[in-house]
């Protein structure tokens, strides 16, 4: 289990990376045992959080040490958003080739080049506004990512204004399934193979209603050609995991709805397998989303 003392200020400032139209900050964590051609995970914090606080709570850098994974933490500036939220609903920040998505794309290019990362093993995850921005990145730059994990987030382009965003967060309205599918297909000229999708949400989330989790699954089902009910449902650490497998039997979408959990990232800080530390939006529920997401991506 990681303690706060070995987790304090573990991240390093990424000083230079391409153009930065979204005016974001970036930190990295490269473990000492990072192998040449190793994988990279991009981690997007939630509102009111920093890269450092999210790393501390989620335990990603501790897992990075364990498994030899490079981490990139894009970080929002208060000048862009007073709550430090990624602007997942602003038109200038939801399209390929500009704004926050292009800033994050350039950070990834820089880190891949600097550290000899395997470009076929770049993944992205985020919580809340970071989860919604994960949806944006997966849709706008699908060729960059092997997989994405959206925690307490929203589907791509489910809102195009702050007012709409507030309504969508409550689980009201939102695009039809065919529109959700079309939005992703229209975000780039890519035609596959598409990133795998992991979706996590609290069953009692009153900030972002978990109807959004099901919408995210539906946004990607047709793209992955896995429409309809899950291939199987199993219990993991006491929680149901729904899995959709493609025609080749490969797991392409998974969904966890954590019963009784509010808004935040599910963690398990205790025990031999423990990661991270309980805190605001870092919820101790006895399952480590960090560890299970990395496992879904074959990184453990």
UniProtKB/TrEMBL annotation:
Listed InterPro entries: AB_hydrolase_fold, Esterase_phb, Plant_Biomass_Hydrol_Est
MF GO annotations: hydrolase activity
Keywords: Hydrolase, Signal
Pfam families in the record: Esterase_PHB
Domain of life per record: Bacteria
Single GO cellular component term: extracellular region
UniProt name for this protein: Esterase PHB depolymerase
Organism the protein comes from: Halomonas chromatireducens
Organism lineage string: Bacteria, Pseudomonadati, Pseudomonadota, Gammaproteobacteria, Oceanospirillales
